[in-house]
Each structure stands twice: as structure tokens, then as C-alpha cells.
Specification:
This protein is of the alpha+beta class. It is built from 1 helix and 4 strands, in the order E-E-H-E-E. A 4-stranded antiparallel sheet has the order 1-2-4-3, covered by helices on one side.
Length: 85
């Protein structure tokens, strides 16, 4: 097994597929779910992302072979310093 291969049943998380502009209000995460992951397992994975990472579902895509790709987004909280002189 090479260092880049995934064991069966593992999902792949890509933080970003493209570069967003600096003024973007959202942060994006793309999750690839293989076809051998059950629907219940995929749902629990996405539920954990939503509860603990504050991600929300933006888009999902199901491929002919049964694999799924899910786009998650969350609002970026930009905080400016108030004590700068």
C-alpha cells in the first residue's frame, strides 16, 4: 500500500479545491465518500462535521458508481484588533 492510498471505507477530505477571493464570506470543504460507505455511515460523518466543526451542507453529488462528493461550507469569522495603536 502506498502512502497516498486510502484503506477501504475511508473518506477523503479536501480543504479547498480552488482558491477563494480574500473577501469570501465562506470557507469550503470537499468530502469524497467512496461507494462502499453506507448511507448511514455517511450521514453520521456529515452530522459530526456539522455539530463539531460548524459545517453545513452546501451541495452533494452522487456518481454512477455509487461514490459521493459533498461540499460543506461555514461562515468565516474575521475579527479585527481593537487594541492596535
Amino acid at each position: 500500500m502506498s502512502k497516498h492510498s486510502n484503506p477501504a471505507g475511508a473518506h477523503v477530505v479536501h480543504p479547498r479545491r480552488h482558491r477563494e477571493p480574500a473577501t469570501s464570506r465562506f470557507e469550503w470543504r470537499v468530502v469524497d465518500i467512496p461507494r462502499d460507505v453506507t448511507r448511514a455511515e455517511a450521514r453520521s460523518l456529515l452530522t459530526e462535521q456539522a455539530e463539531y466543526g460548524r459545517w453545513e451542507l452546501a451541495r452533494s453529488q452522487k456518481f454512477i458508481g455509487g461514490a459521493r462528493r459533498v461540499w460543506l461550507k461555514r461562515r468565516v469569522m474575521r475579527v479585527e484588533r481593537t487594541d492596535a495603536a
